[in-house]
Amino acid sequence: MAVACVEVAARPAAPEAIDRVEHRREQRARAARALLVAPARSYRIAAYCQAAATLGVEMVLASGGINSLIARAADGLQVDFSEPEQSVRTLLAAMRDAPISAVVATDDVAAEIASRVAAAAGLPHNPPSAARIARRKDLARATLSAAGVRVPRFRTIDLHRPLEPQIAGVGYPCVVKPLAMAASRGVIRADTPGELLVACRRVERIVGDCADEEERGTLLLEDFIPGFEVAVEGILQEGRLRPLAIFDKPDPLDGPFFEETYYVTPSRLGAAQQALILERVAEACLAYGLREGPVHAELRVNSEDAWIIEVAARTIGGDCARLLDFGTGASLEELVLTHALGHAPVLGPSTGAAGVLMIPTTRAGTLRRVEGVLEASRIPGVEDVVIAVREGYELVPLPEGGSYLGFVFARGASSEEVESALREAHTRLRVVVAPAWRLEAGPGGPGVPSSGHA
Question: pTM of this prediction?
């Protein structure tokens, strides 16, 4: 089936032949059931459910709770991500009566469980050890260093021991980060020993609610890498990387926090730099042991090299996958599901340029409203403006927070045109925030209102 699809994509075929190929693909897809392992509040659940519906695949959702952004999460299998052994047993038991044809994870926290379930079921998967390395920044750094891939100098910080002796000899600027958090949450740059001590204590509070004891008590400290950032989206097939997109991040990400805003593709870098970036991502995948499924990589590029920041065994986060165009009308999630079901995804040439603005949370407080959405949506090139946070929600900026207000999507003839449209749309948005008030014990006794973040 996969060969037939590739042949149709490679040379002209009669309409009736294409119809036969599509009919067979639909028949095989409809006979399939896929297990989606996802945190309850993952943005990615809806996109994967839509992809499954498009392909005619029955989707079984394994989630971490009944309170989800997607109502159907409450109807699926309930797993506890803080208890991976029990979660794997629960899912394998459920699969005995209703076999699964594919296992897919939406987020870093779900990837290791998904890989273990797929391995036990004999389905395409990454080794669980590779999924763990990809999720854990300290293990990833050590693995890359052992494989000879260039990484910044790094060390781990034990929060149960005095900090001053552990940071002796550190070069500045440096970056301190949690072992396993996404969206730049808890990542802080420090330029002096004093700043580093304050940053370590701040990140310690952020990781205080981690379920894993090691992740709660350990931080990663590494040299700051100057340069600009890019992201890579790809898919692995039997260990071979098929690049899908390289994204430019045109805003400087120099700290002290590292909130991402603009992603634009295709990249405006030269062919040699793009080849180096893809080479480094492939090296990292090989070092980790990743072999199957989606990868999302972040790199910093300078005159010395393209430096791996992370390679995650998942797709790009949030709603950002919407901007990818594979020339076949298929979404990124459809490609991932197709691959997981054992078929070769069909890729066509992308046309034009696309980009997304991840609307940053710049002020703490309670969201009242976002003004200017209609104005922003009327900017030429802008396709959609999505506000993901509802009125009344508390906004928490980085480094404590890790979510975005929403997304602006744009398309155009060139990357320059797309970036210009996104920046113009951003100027039209006005976020109205009120102070957050909490009931705390104060001078007047219990229950006296106390202002939180201003």
Answer: 0.86
